[in-house]
Amino acid sequence: MRPGMAHRSTPVVTELTAPFWRATEQGRIELQYCALCNRFIFPPFPECLGCDSSRPEWREVAASGSINTISVVESDILPGLEELIPLQVALVALDGVPGVLIPSNVLGAGARSGDRVRATFEYAGTVALPLFALDATAVEQ
Question: Which of 39, 101, 28 is nearest to 66 (CA)?
Answer without folding.
Answer: 101
